[in-house]
Please model this.
Amino acid sequence: MQQLKKIVIIGPESTGKSTLCEQLAGYYQTIWCREYAREYLLKHGTNYSYDNLLTIAKGQIELEDKAVSSVLAAAKDTVGPPLLFIDTNMYVMKVWCEFVFDKCHQWIIEQIVNRKYDLYLLCNTDLPWVKDELREYPDPETRERLYHIYKDIMINQNTPWANISGDYEERFEKAKEAVGNNLRFEI
Model:
């Protein structure tokens, strides 16, 4: 068995990250790690503090570590590298902290430095906004500003990344192509 490959889907809210994770996990017959923030905010409400973001970040890491263990346990007899699709990581937490509170927890920065990933899929803002009780930034200008913050992060880090845009089907096709090209893996 080859080493686990971790693919992170990032970008502003309402850009199809969870949908894409679910599609890719189904296609590659693996699991995906959901976004802990949704679970936390649904339980505790949307009036969050700076310290709550550290709690959310730690919950995200815990979910990711559990997902890694699950994928590795299930992949003992598979051919090719096991894959894990991750909806959100510490880059998202850093952007969230800095965008809302103009500062970031040192623990989040340390996780960015110490955790390694194999590919990022950056979701663009060209999907229509879908309102739900947790989303904060429906205006196109803010969404575009956030997208460019994520794009700057992608440009200035060393892990391969791909821009994912278009409708849901186009995004899925671009994401599969990026996984195949960057990880040399096909099903």
Notes: The CA atoms of residues 23 and 172 lie 7 Å apart. The chain is about 50% helix and 10% strand.
